[in-house]
Design goal:
Order of helices and strands: EEEHEEEHEHEHHHHHHHEHEH
Shape: globular
Helix content: 25-40%
CATH architecture of the largest domain: 3-Layer(aba) Sandwich
Radius of gyration: 20 Å
CATH topology of the largest domain: Rossmann fold
Distance between the termini: 35 Å
Number of domains: 2
CATH superfamily of the largest domain: Alpha/Beta hydrolase fold, catalytic domain
Strand content: 15-25%
Structural class: alpha/beta
């Protein structure tokens, strides 16, 4: 809901990207993808503007960000207000549709879910920058909350200083043993209804006229399995890192998951150097986050402090839900960082 209807309004443009790197997703989805791009008031192009890329949380899509909301601003409305107030300089923002039939996205490459890192870096960025003239070396930032926060910090660890110049991880997936392993018993209970047939469970989930919250959470964990430890020979590429009968961790499979945990990824000196190459890095989490993500955020923060990686770290008094207001600090931070030479 726009708090002040008299403020100048930016515009949202939609690009269609016929992806080549997403061909062959195991879900069978078409690789044609939409990207909404915000331009600030008075601009018909993004020439010389920094570019932010907004990664949406699990079950979401970038296309949601400009849709009407009853009790809060959309991201474009928030940008209009912050620009009008002089809190941030004009900026272009891309909102890619990365939703999948796995229920969402972690924004990294997977043999099952798709080559989403490659899509963002090799296809989406060039398409947006060519069409609008924004971004380019030194002027690209990436941010997101929850799974989007995970994607932002993963991209910073993988491409910081090369592709991305600033990043913000809001309540991102960190410390996998705390975030994901506690979900495994509930997933096994859900799969037991189909005799532990994952392919059948996925088919029945999408065929159901109403999706329950419990099943949506089970889907999320199955999506993580397809992302971090895909098995191309299995239905939907999904195999779990625990045994089906006793929920015992299968060490070699779980090791594949842990290789994608940002807390452990940041233990690599080369990855830390990529973080040091950023103009700005933001990390935050609510102090009663119901997915236990606070502890991973603290671990990563302390590791970065130990190794002299510049960053902003904030804990705030809230949980994991309804925290878009955190963008009030994040967006100015990112735009200011990208404005520095």
């Amino acid at each position: 809901m726009r708090p002040d209807p008299t403020l100048p309004r930016g515009t949202v443009h939609r690009l269609m990207i016929d992806s080549q790197v997403l061909v062959g997703m195991m879900s069978g989805e078409p690789p044609l993808r939409e990207v909404d791009v915000y331009l600030p008031p008075g601009r018909t192009d993004g020439e010389d503007l920094p570019l932010l890329v907004h990664l949406t949380g699990f079950t979401g899509s970038g296309l949601m960000q400009s849709g009407w909301r009853s009790f809060e601003e959309t991201v474009p409305e928030r940008l209009d207000r912050l620009i009008a107030a002089g809190t941030i300089a004009p900026v272009a923002v891309a909102f890619p549709n990365c939703f999948t039939l796995y229920g969402g996205n972690q924004y990294v490459n997977s043999a099952a879910v798709g080559r989403w890192d490659d899509f963002l870096v090799q296809e989406m960025l060039p398409a947006v920058e060519a069409r609008f003239g924004c971004g380019g070396p030194g002027k690209r930032g990436i941010y997101g909350k929850s799974s989007g926060g995970y994607g932002a910090i993963a991209h910073a660890l993988l491409h910081g200083g090369e592709v991305w110049d600033a990043a913000a991880c809001l309540s991102g997936d960190l410390a996998f043993e705390l975030a994901y392993l506690p979900e495994m018993p509930a997933v096994l209970r859900a799969l037991a209804k189909t005799g532990f047939d994952i392919g059948r469970w996925m088919t029945e989930f999408w065929a159901a006229r109403k999706k329950s919250g419990k099943d949506t959470h089970a889907l999320m964990t199955l999506a993580m399995a397809a992302t971090y430890d895909p098995d191309p020979s299995a239905p939907w590429g999904i195999r779990l890192p625990v045994t089906m009968d006793t929920c015992t961790v299968i060490e070699d499979r779980w090791a594949n998951w842990l290789a994608w945990d940002p807390v452990l990824m940041a233990g690599d000196p080369a990855a830390r150097d990529r973080l040091k190459a950023l103009k700005g890095l933001w990390l935050d989490c609510g102090d009663i986050d119901q997915y236990n993500l606070l502890y991973g955020a603290r671990r990563l923060h302390r590791l970065l402090e130990t190794h002299g990686v510049p960053h902003v770290y904030e804990e705030f008094p809230d949980d994991h839900s309804g925290i878009d207001y955190r963008l009030e600090g994040v967006l100015p931070f990112l735009v200011a960082a990208l404005s520095r030479d």
